[in-house]
Task: structure prediction
Amino acid sequence: TAIYWRNTWKYQARAYRHLFWDSGTMLANLLATAGALGIPARLVTFFLDARVNRLLALDSDKEVSLELVSLGSAAPPAVAPAVEPISPRSLPLSSTEVDYPLAGEIHAASSLVEPDEVRAVRASAMGAPRAVPGSLLSLPEPLPVSGKPLGETIIRRGSTRQFSGQPISARAMATALFHATRGIPADFLQGPGHRLVDLYLIVNAVDGIEPGAYCYWPEAHGLERLKGGDFRGQAGFLCLEQALGSDASVVIFFLADLGPILERFGNRGYRLANLEAGIIGGKCYLSAYGQGFGASGLTFYDGDVVRFFSPHAEAKDALFVTVLGRSVRGTPSIEVPLQLAKK
Ligand SMILES: Cc1cc2nc3c(=O)[nH]c(=O)nc-3n(C[C@H](O)[C@H](O)[C@H](O)COP(=O)(O)O)c2cc1C
Result:
């Protein structure tokens, strides 16, 4: 679930998309943990919003359910048991709150109301794999395992507040990109190899890769070169004039052609595209910290990002940004409680 105010106090109505980046970041951790424990996990994004909100006793003017995850593989019950309503008391986050009604309006406009609507969108899971262009720059083989165990990686992960500008290796970047894009077990995707979002890169400092703008093709694990050059200044500007964008080794911009996505899923598609970007971004965080470097999620200037990557990105929308690089503080050294790092 998400409480609007936790994001709207800072980002106002634009916070709506943050709900999906943030929950995607958390889901990346959950899916990785389930995978490590061998527990089948499946992300459920098509559900009757009001029913789930009621089940959780949410005050849906303030807090709404975003996604469900099914864990394990038990047979479904023949009849769903009746669940009594609950009414927990909660403490207010702030003494006063500002309402940004647009967030609630887009949530209502992308909610599923009738069981038939849920069945219909479930049947529309995303379709045809992409046609990969012919001449790609091939990337190094990704590392099969990172240096750290998953539990330690999740505890150490955080958002790098300042990058040093130092390079990472092509193999480190390739490892992050490869493992972050191996598919998501979700009801809106037909299977691995299907995706809604595209990954555009500004390479600032990656050893062995010419600085420039690229499109990453997960299907072929290769880069399509868009233009060469030092774009550090533009990268910082595009990331809402934050030095994180210019000091990172590589800036990953998630874009999508929302037209066909909205056609397929209705307004729900807007949530899904942002969510997929958030999950891939979250996996990039894990891969970065697992390999001993840093990452951060970022906001950006929407139209300028699309213009920078055009004509390739024409007609697409910018959704989210994740940056990878070396922290000025070196490898994060947070104390890891041993009982959490061990079984
Ligand atoms: C999805 C996402 C988007 C973010 N956007 C920004 C941003 O635009 N600027 C920034 O300085 N930090 C950004 N951050 C970093 C957050 O401020 C930071 O994550 C937050 O303080 C929570 O801490 P943690 O990620 O270290 O656990 C973002 C982080 C995430 C996960």
